Amino acid sequence: MWLASGITSAQMGKTYGILGGELCKDETLDKAFPVLGSICSQTTGIVALSFVIWVIRPILPHLALADVVNGIPDSAPAGFDQWTSPIVLPAPNTTGQNGWASSVARARAFVAQLTLAEKINVTTGVDTGASSRCLGNTGTILCLHDSPIGVRLTDFVSAFPAGINAASTWDRDLIEKRGYAMGSEHKGKGVNIVLGPGTNLARVAAAGRNWEAFGADPFLAGVATAASIEGYQSAGVIAGTHFCGGSEAKQVESSNIDDRTLHEVYVWPFAEAVKVGVAAVMCSYNYINQTQACQNSKLINGVLKEELGFQGFIMSDWAAMINGLQPALAGLDMNMPGFIGYGIGDQDQPDPSTATNSWWGSELSTMVNNGSLSETRIDDMVTRIFAAWYQLGQDEDYPHVSFTQHGQQTFSADGQLVNEHVNVQGEHYRLIREIGAASSILLKNTKNALPLRVKNLKRIGIFGSDAAANPDGANNCAGGATSHGCSQGTLAQGWGSGTAYFPYLVDPLSAIGTHIRSINPTVVVDAVTNDFNLKAVSDAASLADTCLVFVNADSGEGYITVDGNAGDRNNITLWHGGDNLILTTASRCANTIVVAHIVGPVLVESWIDHPNVTAFINAGIPGQESDEPEWAVAYTMAKTREDYNADVLYTSSDPVTQITYEEALEIDYRHFDAHDIEPRFEFGFGLSYTTFVYSGLETAPHPRRDADHTTTSAPGTAASPVNPVGGPTELYDVVATVSFTIKNTGPIAGNEVPQLYLGFPASVNEPPKVLRGFTRKLIAAGSETRVALDLRRKDVSVWDVVRQDWVVPEGRFEVMVGSSSRDIKLTGSLEF
Ligand code: BGC
């Protein structure tokens, strides 16, 4: 396929020559990849062996590993003894249940024809050097590529609003459309597997990668993850997520999480992903209970594959593996990007099956030959990978890879066509704008400051570097950092691998200027975009009737440090002297409107109650376009940093930092509720330009399907059969419906997001309220609508660690319906 786009046959030989043998005789593949015939006649690629790894292996960190075979878990450092992860063996084979039967059968038939070397070529990534096209390449057919906001590192693509903005819309349909649009762009460029969406929860306010994912609540993140995956996969790409429990950017940490919290909080969104048929999952860099995520047999074999019945494949995060045999036994199916570590040895060995700079590659053959790993485990790895490929229909007319991760230039240094500049943007800018608007959160609005009445404006002051374009260009950084690893100009995405190039970036200053001129061309627009020229700000503010102050706070992935922030933010205050900019403006301008482009919560106490700060919009990080505010915050904004119960652990003397999730179930608003701490803006809060009245709550339990308050099938144990996809089907039965009426009593149409929270019976020690339903409704002025929210059995269950099962507790559930986690409008009860 790449041949057709101008890649030379010599290069193809390097890429595809490793196929060889039986694979070249396979008709399925011949059909899917018509160039295979010519490729198969190429000589096997050059095998560039690197022995460096043998030299450095002994000094690689964290090699004091569990004895998986003998069931001995990784040990914990003193004081953390209870935080170990049990060994769960064997790795369950894919079963083909729940809609996967045909794909698994086809994959099995195909895999049966492969030699061991060919199978290894599918499990182990290859070709990450200068000639590689995607961030991950495997099986000589699969392109794995970032990111959760667009196709990374190439051109003619869209830069979508971040995951945190998607969650802030509280709109499942919009989130699914976003997934579909991003999936279409990836497919259009030839990407098979998108490395997204980000699914980790925002446990810690300052955590660097929070913006890539869907906020601080497992239910909201679960809905957003499932909707995104449905979107991606209906466009035809395989979606991957980060599994699991990585809450900080430093990545070599043991997230010590108890079993109940793991199930009810951190695995929850992944279960929703599996339930909707996610075809690929990525394990994370962090350790969970001392065991690195990619070799955590409890999580991969036990939870993901048995309990949740996951039928797809699990790949490692990039160079996350720290061992070869353990991940293979623990259920890992694909090693990405193939080499052992960044900067370690040869990064670009052309034949995975003989590669020596890999935890797998030739090592897998050795493991099979010496009996430590059965070939059937490798068969299942490859079956899962091809089952996912068939499941998404990627064997039919899939676009070829038409870009390279190494730049936007058309030809490589040696004259090969590497970027065909395929334009995949379509009309996505419309959706981006819609989500940008739906995810901008109005947090304060006094004196009718918003919406702006442009007709009445005479003179407006616009302040802050965040209002303006990046002087080095939207995708550049002074000093040359890549992947948006700097904070210059308006902030529309964070930094790291979760990024994409802007095709253009609508900066607020130009957009507002154009908007104002289209309505009232005589308005004087005074802009000061130097955050520290407070004299100029003050002078302009004193003349203006309305002032807009743009401020921001940035964060990203830990491999880039920006202004001393190594991924995670060092503080949760505004960047670039934002507080001073606001206070200087407000001291001279009676109508000061603050717009914040922020990756997560910031402290606003020094100015939020200032009488001249009339309005505050949290616009998140909206991607290439931005618009009017609409909905609600997907995390708690506290009054002080200390009000949060979890924080980044910046330094530690442990070889593997120990981060114990002592707060257990009390993530975010659950903690504020449980300890009666008043937040500045609570989870789920967002103002509207209109008003709503709630009434008529009804709670209707549905007939029971079982007698003993438990699910009918226990989750898998090592030797038990794999559960249906997503877990026991009874867990997803609707057990009750909560309905109520919302009337728009204001003057204009508006969106409302009713939120359903449950208070569990006291005996089970849940936090005071947990989100279990929401929807977003556009209601015309004066109209009312009846809303019905279903509760599934899982929504009213707790994870019983002794029974290792979901259990519906006896007793009274409090039903709370409101427009935020603290603005409860209706209450009722339910019993099961
Ligand atoms: C990140 C992943 C990303 C991968 C490839 C890793 O560092 O954690 O999210 O997909 O790199 O760029």
From TrEMBL:
Pfam families according to UniProt: Fn3-like, Glyco_hydro_3, Glyco_hydro_3_C
Domain named Fibronectin type III-like: residues: 752-821
The keyword Glycoprotein is assigned to this record: yes
GO molecular function, one term: beta-glucosidase activity
The protein's annotated pathway: Glycan metabolism; cellulose degradation
Reactions catalysed: Hydrolysis of terminal, non-reducing beta-D-glucosyl residues with release of beta-D-glucose
Key words, A-Z: Carbohydrate metabolism, Cellulose degradation, Glycoprotein, Glycosidase, Hydrolase, Polysaccharide degradation
UniProt-recorded name of the protein: beta-glucosidase
Family that this chain belongs to: Belongs to the glycosyl hydrolase 3 family.
Biased composition (Low complexity): 710-721
GO BP of this protein: cellulose catabolic process
E.C. designation(s): 3.2.1.21
Region (Disordered): 700-725
Organism expressing this protein natively: Roridomyces roridus
Matching InterPro entries: Cellulose_deg_GH3, Fn3-like, GH, Glyco_hydro_3_AS, Glyco_hydro_3_C, Glyco_hydro_3_C_sf, Glyco_hydro_3_N, Glyco_hydro_3_N_sf
Top enzyme category: hydrolase
Domain of life: Eukaryota
